[in-house]
Amino acid sequence: MTMSNQEERTVREMMGSSICLVPEKHLLCLLCRNIFTNPVTIPCGHSFCLSCLSQFWTRRQAKYCPDCRRLFANKPDLSVNHILADVCENYRSAHPQKPPDEETVTDVQQMIQDRLHKIERLKSSLEVQKSSYLREVRESQKVFSALVCAMETTHKAVVSAIESKQKEEEQRVQKLIREIKEEIEQLRNHLNQADPQDFDQSEGMKQVVSLSEMKDWSRVSIESDPCVGVTRRAMSDLLEKIKLEVNRLSKAEQRRLERYTVELNLSGKTAHPFLSVSDDRKQVRHTNKLQEVPDHPTRFDRVANVLAKEGFSSGRVYWEVEVGDKIEWNLGVARQSINRKGKFTVCPANGFWTLSLKAGGQYIANTSPVTFVALEQRPKTVAVFLDYAQGFVSFFCAESGAHIYTFTDRFTDRLYPIFSPGRLHGGKNAAPLIITSSFCSI
pLDDT class for 171, splitting at 50, 70, 90? Predict the structure, then answer.
């Protein structure tokens, strides 16, 4: 039964409208990434352009599917899949494409424009960076000029104090010498009395009294090193001024680092069973009771730690953790590949860069051996800053901005923020660690 011309046109229109619904990706040759031309379908069911597959097999001794890699013992016969060829032809008719040359030119022009824009952005970033460099140079000039001035002033004051002390001692010694000379003169007069027979007894008694009242010079001396400690005390005063300036710079530094604040969430699957993570993933506390949690390769099973879900392998990141009045905790970053099972030493060599407060009130940086850190102010909130490229992990007191400690290392693995709220200590350390910082866009 033959179709009329009208019926044939209707079938073609229906076929064309159906073709419009076929995603183009199903009509693309894996080898040339274009719509099939003379498509052939091989025994595994995958299709390619006849010329593309022929060239592919010509260059290879083994005959296998470029898509699924199925190996054929004998080269399959390649016959054009006419149904698929018709579908592709209808798709081309329904979706006219730009001539390949025009399309290539447009793509190349767009690539050129993208790269020109990138150059402009890089130049703009460099200008912003130059401003930052100049600002830092000016700040360093200001700080170090003030420091040099303070040192010169302090040095002048020390020299002046020493010279003044020396002058006082010289005057004192000259006075003593005058007194001694006067007594020597009196003693010589005593020896030069004319005749003992003419000696008046009453006058002799006066001279005896005078001799007995003379000073005992054996008890008089001068210090051989009168300026001991002068320079040290001056340096101590200078160091106090430097310390105040360092704290001022630390506070300014911390404020600038806040722009790198990131959103952190605790990873429940890494938490030791003794730890309880809040529903919002911002708090962790020690329960002293094993939680019913599924075993997981990333879970700590010996040390009560928990990691953040977010890890970092580039850039700069900043976050703050509220420690409150807790008497024990541990904060910092850890390598993705750290040991999570059994006992291990927390130190940079093992992939940990952390700061701790011990139950005795001592702050330590977990180096090997540990570094004791003296703090004037007990932080309620600790700020942590990671500069991956520079290899810095820095800790600050968030309230005062005082710098606590900085690790310097070379990072090659992904780093994750790590938290340990410490043991309960009879309920004295039951408060949680709280991630207080949240992402802010500037």
Answer: very high
Structure tokens at 284: 């962790």
What pTM value is reported for the model? 0.59
Strand partners of residue 332: 354, 418
Please give the helix or strand (H or E) that residue 384 lies within, else none. Answer: strand 381-387
What pLDDT, on the 0 to 100 scale, is given for residue 6? 56
Domain residue limits, the chain: 17-94, 260-436
For the cut 60, the answer to whether the pLDDT of residue 195 exceeds it is: no
The rounded distance, in Å, linking the Cα atoms of 173 and 63 is 111
Asked if the 17-94 domain carries CATH number 3.40.50.10050, the reply is no
The CATH T-level fold of domain 260-436 is: Jelly Rolls (2.60.120)
Give strand pairing partners of 320: 383
Q: Residue 397 forms beta bridges with which residues?
A: 382
Instruction: Transcribe 204-262 into DSSP letters.
Output: HHHHHHHHHTS--GGG----S-TTTTHHHHHHHHHHHHHHHHHHHHHHHHHHHHGGGB-
Task: Sort 304 into a burial class: Cβ within 10 Å, 0-12 / 13-18 / 19+.
Answer: buried
pLDDT tens-digit map of 277-318: 999 999 999 998 888 888 888 999 989 999 999 999 999 999
